[in-house]
């Protein structure tokens, strides 16, 4: 697995487009998120269909074609420096094949931020565009609006990424050890759902795999991991970082399942690395090389997330 191209960091006055590739966006939360971005001296612009609702399926932020058009237009606009997702939910997989990836590649690199359902786009941006992306909070996300740690870490990553090259775990090593590799990953259920699709990686070989999820029963998490294992997708992975498992209870049972499913890989596995759906979530740069020390609970990036 190779390192990916790092987009340029943001500067005051940068234009940031907010898009909604997945679920419907509450207007009041969107407006609050825009206020936060303006407070960072950014110039946020909202894509035309962000507040749409699908006429039949209320779990989608408008029609697939409109959500895809918003993302593509924002990415291909030379005046836009970064694209931030408004929220996750569900819907990316329905619109990913409607994007003109050749046109987006020709538009050149820029910053892309999101998580949860946006995992499918992290995979696509890596395989189709070869770009570093940020697994981080979204503009209308509750944690982004209310948590200072979440805001501060994303802001530092965007404007001064050299200041956040070390990320520390709040937990312990499930399997101790050290490993080097390229960061990738996201929401476990999405990674399992992406297997065999046109935009997914063929495996996590050579990578440091970041995993998190929300609201899943232990047996379902077990099934996702078992699917990745049986497909050979985890063959050659260098190390694994576990983020938040909000609403996945009881934690002792979840932890035992991870030990059972991941312990046989013979690679370091570190817990509670603070990214994902949990409170105070940190921003993780996918596509950057790093060193994991599971015993010490540290991840050190070889280079800043953004150039």
Overview of this protein structure:
The protein has 307 residues and is α/β, with parallel strands linked by helices. 31% of the residues lie in helices and 21% in strands. The chain contains ten helices and 14 strands. The strands form two sheets. It has an eight-stranded mixed β-sheet with strand order 6-14-13-8-9-10-11-7. Strands 2-1-3-4-5-12 form a six-stranded mixed β-sheet, sandwiched between helices. Strand 13 and strand 14 form a beta hairpin. Helix 8 packs parallel to helix 9. The longest helix has 13 residues. The two termini are 20 Å apart. The mean pLDDT is 97.
Summarize the helices and strands and which ones pair or pack:
Layout (H helix, E strand, L loop, with lengths): L14 E5 L7 H13 L3 E4 L17 H13 L5 E4 L6 H4 L5 H6 L4 E4 L4 H11 L3 E3 L6 H5 L1 H12 L6 E3 L4 E3 L2 E10 H7 L12 E8 L3 H13 L8 E8 L4 H12 L6 E2 L13 E3 L2 E5 L4 E4 L6
Parallel strand pairs: 1-2, 1-3, 3-4, 4-5, 8-9, 9-10, 10-11
Antiparallel strand pairs: 5-12, 6-14, 7-11, 8-13, 13-14
- Based on CA atoms alone, the radius of gyration comes out at 18 Å
Series of H and E elements: EHEHEHHEHEHHEEEHEHEHEEEE
Task: Give the neighbour order of strands across the main sheet.
Answer: 6-14-13-8-9-10-11-7
Q: State the total count of DSSP E strands.
A: 14
Strand-residue fraction? Answer: 15-25%
Report the uncertain regions: none
Number of helices: 10
Q: Assembly type of the shown chains?
A: single chain
User: What helical percentage do the residues reach?
Assistant: 25-40%
Major β-sheet annotation: 8 strands, mixed
- Overall pLDDT level: 97
Cα distance spanning the termini: 20 Å
**Class from helix and strand fractions:** alpha/beta
Shape by Cα distribution: globular
């Amino acid at each position: 697995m190779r390192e990916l191209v790092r987009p340029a960091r943001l500067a005051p006055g940068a234009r940031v487009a907010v898009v909604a590739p997945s679920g419907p966006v509450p207007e009041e939360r969107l407006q609050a998120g825009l206020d936060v971005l303006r407070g960072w001296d950014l110039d946020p612009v909202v894509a035309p269909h962000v507040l749409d609702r699908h006429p039949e399926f209320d779990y989608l932020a408008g029609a697939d074609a409109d959500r895809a058009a918003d993302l593509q237009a924002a990415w291909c606009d030379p005046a836009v420096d970064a694209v931030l997702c408004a929220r996750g939910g569900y819907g990316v997989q329905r619109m990913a094949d409607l994007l003109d990836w050749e046109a987006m590649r020709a538009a050149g690199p820029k910053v892309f931020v999101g998580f949860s359902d946006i995992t499918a786009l992290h995979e696509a941006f890596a395989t189709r565009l070869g770009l570093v992306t940020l697994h981080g909070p979204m503009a209308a996300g509750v944690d982004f609006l209310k948590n200072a740690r979440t805001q501060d870490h994303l802001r530092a990553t965007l404007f001064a990424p050299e200041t956040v090259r070390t990320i520390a775990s709040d937990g312990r090593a499930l399997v101790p050890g050290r490993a080097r590799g390229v960061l990738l990953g996201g929401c476990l259920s999405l990674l399992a759902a992406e297997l065999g699709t046109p935009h997914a990686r063929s495996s996590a070989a050579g990578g440091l795999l970041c995993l998190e999820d929300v609201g899943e029963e232990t047996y379902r998490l077990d099934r996702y991991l078992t699917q990745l294992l049986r497909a050979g997708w985890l063959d050659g992975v260098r190390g694994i970082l576990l983020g938040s498992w909000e609403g996945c209870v009881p934690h002792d049972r979840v932890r035992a399942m991870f030990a059972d499913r991941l312990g046989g890989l013979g690679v370091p596995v570190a817990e509670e690395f603070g990214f994902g759906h949990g409170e105070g979530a940190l921003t993780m740069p996918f596509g950057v090389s790093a060193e994991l020390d599971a015993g010490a609970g540290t991840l050190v990036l070889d280079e800043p997330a953004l150039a």
